[in-house]
Amino acid sequence: MSSRMPKPLYRIGDRVRFQFPGYSVWGTIVEDRGPFGVGGRRQYTVSVPSDPFEPSRYMVSEDRLEPDREPPTPLAKAEILRFLENSGLIRILMTNPSPDGPRDPRVWLCRDQAGDVTHTLVPERGMVGGAPVPYAAFWGSDGIRAEKRDEVATYLLTFGLTHPEAENLIRVVGVYPAKKPRRAKARTA
Predict the structure, then answer these.
(1) How many domains are contained in the chain?
(2) pLDDT, tens digit, for every residue of 17-38?
(3) What pLDDT shows up at residue 1?
């Protein structure tokens, strides 16, 4: 009679998939917790990306995991444009708003758990991009700062856009005009 424990099916660093209520998610094994589950089932800690935010960690039993061998579908330009037009560009520009934030963050586009386009600050998950985000290019909720227009247009080229596509995207998102200097009021004696 042997009391040997079966070898683990997965190793730290393996990309796996498991079922959430209603949909499947993928993640990376970050810890083998051992066979302490019900009936001696092996447990793993799986880090599940939720870009652009920090990943979530879940403890999942080995019998609920399966290898995730399917590479993500490449990003199509139409998807990239749709994402950037629908608040994606603004959210990206907001990652470098002031000198108090992270210095020169780099952003990549990737797919989220639902397969839609999102952005990430993690190079390993990025599919397109990676250039430093233009500093202080977003002006509140009114659009891109006028003096940063050219810098943002050049930045958009790193996502595979052409110059005309970048200019059209900037027009769609909007540009906030540069502030005019205030005129001093004339003093009366």
Answers:
(1) 2
(2) 999 888 899 999 999 999 887 7
(3) 46
pLDDT at residue number 89: 96
Regions of the chain with pLDDT less than 50? 1
Q: 70 with 82: CB under 8 angstroms?
A: no
- What does the alpha-carbon distance between residue 62 and residue 48 come to, in Å, rounded to a whole number? 16
Task: Write out the residue range of the structural domain in which residue 141 sits.
Answer: 77-176
Are 91 and 121 spatial neighbours (Cβ–Cβ below 8 Å)? no
Global pTM?
Answer: 0.81
Contact 63, 147 (CB under 8 A): no
Distance CA 189, CA 187 (A): 6
Of 39, 67, 95, at which residue does a domain stop?
Answer: 67
Cα Rg for the chain, rounded, in angstroms?
23
Q: Of 128, 124, 6, 13, whose CA–CA distance to 68 is shortest?
A: 13
Q: What is the phi-psi region of residue 56: left when phi exceeds 0, alpha when psi lies from -120 to 50, beta otherwise?
A: beta
Angle formed by the axes of helices 149-156 and 163-173, to 10°? 130
